[in-house]
Design goal:
By secondary structure, this protein is an alpha+beta fold. It contains 9 helices and 7 strands; from the N terminus they run αααααβαββαββααββ.
Length: about 325
């Protein structure tokens, strides 16, 4: 009964209009002295036809209502199948619902992908941070641990923690960017000072040629990028050293490490890509260079790499272009 009243409410204007038209027609016919029996006969005939059309319309209305309810029940199964639209307005509503459903599926898909990536990253991160923990445990068990080695492993753990925090900040809506003119040499020196102990422990040479450049950037985020590039150079370099110098407005960080295969170079800035070297040396998160690329995109800088297997890698930061930096 509730459904029937809903149907009547939907067509209340049409019913009122028909009643008014019927009243006007009866009044006009009475003015021409049409016999009352004829008026009642016409009224009953129109009423019968109206009831028939009303019943047929209600059956169609109820059928479509049930079809929509079935579609709603199937929505929980991840499908949206609507009955064919009967008019333009209904087609518009269905188009809007279809668009919403597609948007919902896209959000669900992207959320699932983000969760999968985060789970992969944190799983790899947990395994990675176990390495310095295990090394520190062995050093402490040796009786007289070398303080320099302990500080080196502790520094590695701090960098892994910073990597997680950076991953979270770059994945959020706000990255607290503050763009200003910065002394590039001061940023480089701060990063070099931070990693100096590891260079000493690995007995690698560090050559820094002052750039004398002033760049429009965010000091903290550019410092993170340079520090991460130094960390990568340390990780994959066992002999020789690392050189830092400028070529015009481009900063170059060059190492004499194992190098990157040519077929892997286009993918090194992708999320979670570790490559052959990452799988050979240790289990890595594959996020360091990805976060560098993300930070450079936010700053408006460009980052690229050149490498030759067995000879080393050159990572180039182009600091001259500032296209649409995001504040």
């Amino acid at each position: 009964m509730k459904l029937f009243f809903s149907y009547l409410k939907r067509h209340i204007r049409l019913l009122l209009m028909l009643l008014v038209c019927g009243g006007v027609a009866a009044a006009v016919l009475s003015l021409y002295r049409v016999p009352r029996e004829g008026l009642w006969y016409a009224f009953l005939l129109c009423l019968a036809v109206g009831i028939l059309f009303l019943a047929v319309g209600f059956c169609r209305y109820r059928s479509r209502h049930r079809a929509l309810r079935r579609a709603l029940d199937r929505l929980g199964e991840g499908t949206l199948t609507l009955p064919e639209a009967e008019d333009a307005l209904e087609a518009d509503y269905q188009g809007m619902l279809t668009a919403w459903e597609e948007d919902r599926r896209r959000i669900v898909r992207e959320t699932a992908q983000t969760q999968d990536r985060a789970e992969t990253f944190y799983t790899a991160w947990v395994h990675q941070i176990k390495t310095p923990l295990a090394a520190m445990s062995l050093l402490l068990q040796s009786g007289e641990p070398d303080p320099a080695l302990l500080r080196g492993e502790l520094f590695s753990m701090e960098k892994y923690v910073d990597l997680v925090l950076t991953y979270q900040r770059l994945g959020g809506e706000s990255t607290d960017l503050v763009l200003k003119a910065c002394d590039l040499d001061a940023i480089i020196r701060a990063a070099v000072k931070e990693y100096a102990r590891l260079f000493i422990l690995k007995k690698l040479m560090l050559t820094f040629t002052p750039t004398e450049l002033t760049v429009l950037t965010d000091e903290k985020w550019l410092g993170f990028v340079i520090g991460q590039l130094l960390s990568n150079a340390l990780k994959y370099t066992n002999q020789g050293g690392v050189s830092i110098y400028a070529q015009g407005d481009r900063l170059v960080i060059e190492d004499t490490g194992m190098g990157i295969p040519e077929n892997e170079l286009p993918r090194i800035f992708e999320r979670s890509f570790t490559g052959e070297n990452g799988r050979t040396i240790e289990r890595t998160t594959g996020l360091g260079l990805y976060l560098c690329k993300r930070a450079c995109d936010l700053l408006g800088h460009q980052i690229s790499a050149e490498s030759e297997v067995g000879k080393g890698t050159r990572v180039i930061l182009d600091l001259s272009r500032m296209e649409n930096p995001k504040e």
